[in-house]
Structures are given as C-alpha cells and as structure tokens.
Amino acid sequence: MKKNSSSIRSLVAISICIPFFTGCANVTTGTGGTAVTGAAAGGASAGANADLERCDKTLGTLAVDDGREANWYHSFGSATSITTIEPLIRLAVQQSNCFVLTSIGNARTDSRLSRITDMQRNSGEYRAGSKQQKGQRVAADYYMEPQIIIDNDSTGKVGAAIGGAFNPLVGALAGALETKVSVVTLSLFDIRSSVQISISEGSSTANNYGAALGGFGGGAGGALGGFSRTPAGKATVAAFFDAYNGMVRALKHYEAQKVEGGLGRGGALKVN
C-alpha cells in the first residue's frame, strides 16, 4: 500500500510538472510597456496612447537626435536599464502626424542606410532600373533634441509610520518605498537657419519598487531587483511623452518671432 501511495504521489507530481514543458505557461503580450504605445505607419497609427496630441496637417520633415553623444546618455542607461529613448520619441512623433521622420539624427541608422544605398548603387550586382540614383533622399527641415534635466531624483520616502500603525511589515515596506522624479526637455530647431522654433518641459514620477521589495528580505529583493530600474526608466519615457504633448500644443498656436530689420542683423538692443 505504501508503495502504491508513493507511486500515486509521483504521478501527481509529474502531471503537475509536465504542463510547464508543454506550453502551459501563461505568456501575455502587449503588457509592461511605457506611456508610448502601439504602432505607426505613415500618417496612420494603431494602439496609440489616447492622450497623445495630434496634428491635422504635417508641419515638415524631422531629424531626431539619438542622444548617444549627450552627457546624460550612459549614466541614465546604467541606472535605468533603458538602452535608448529615441525610438519611443519617434513612435510618438509619427503617431501624432505632426512631422515626417528621417533617419538623420541617428548616426548608426543613417550610416547603415548610406552603406546599403552605396552598395546597391555602385556594386553592379543589382537590376537596372532599381532607382538607386543620387538625389532621392529627403532633407530634414527641423531637428529635435531630447535632454534629461533631472535624472530620477529622489523626492523622499513614504512615511513608515502610516503603514506601521496597522502592520509592522507594511510599515517596513512603506518606509522603503521611494518616489523619484524625472524632468526632461525637448528642443526643436529650424535646420536651415539654426533658429530655435520651440522648447518644452515634461515631467513624471515613479516609485522605486526595488527598494520597497527589500522589506521582504534579501531573497525577495534580490529575485525581483529588476523592478528597481524599470519604473524609473518608464517615468523618463513618460516625461518625454509629456514634453512632446506640450510642444505640439504650443506649435498649434505657433507664430514666427519678428525682429525689426531682420534676424541676425544686430538686433534691437543697441550698444553705445
């Protein structure tokens, strides 16, 4: 009887374990994203954030700086595990229909496209009529520069006394929960004149969940430590989303600044 009972328990264990190797794990797509969601194709978009500002008319072509040469780029990536913010800015911009995007601004992408173009045009291996002649690239009218001003600065920890009044464990967890803020700017320049057209600020906050997980002990904090980076990175993406929305709202009421006598000709502030 004991042997049969043991065999039954083994079979139960096997029947429980097998689903994990036969596709029974629950995998969900479309979750864990940022404030910038969905897709874009030309002037059409799918699944865009409902709060994204949009333009009825496209304003021109745009180059977006990839940030790789900025002084904030590497330290921000190390702290948040965010490898780049440029594609998400590009996604929001194209979904908004405010600009047509070019590869210029991303040195790696532009270099690769140039290499492919050169190979197709000059290798002699491609069919005649493939239309790889010079003069087909579209110039950018405007240049957008993202900047992180405040990189996930701490705004203080939640008071442990609030949770501790009800449960010591909750109090310890609340005491470790830290709120951080990201403040960013987006600048828009006219490329031909180098004049700044628009600038906007955006901000967002995130909770440092990784620090809070430490309230459950080293095991839980170590196993789930990735959460300490994800919220802060997502907050910065949300801050850029906020900045872009503000810029679009301002551009909808854009008026070119005028200087008597013309731009770059001495200005109105005379010096004796």
UniProtKB/TrEMBL annotation:
Endpoints of the signal sequence: 1-25
Keywords linked to the UniProt accession: Signal
Protein name (record): Curli biogenesis system outer membrane secretion channel CsgG
Species: Nitrosomonas europaea (strain ATCC 19718 / CIP 103999 / KCTC 2705 / NBRC 14298)
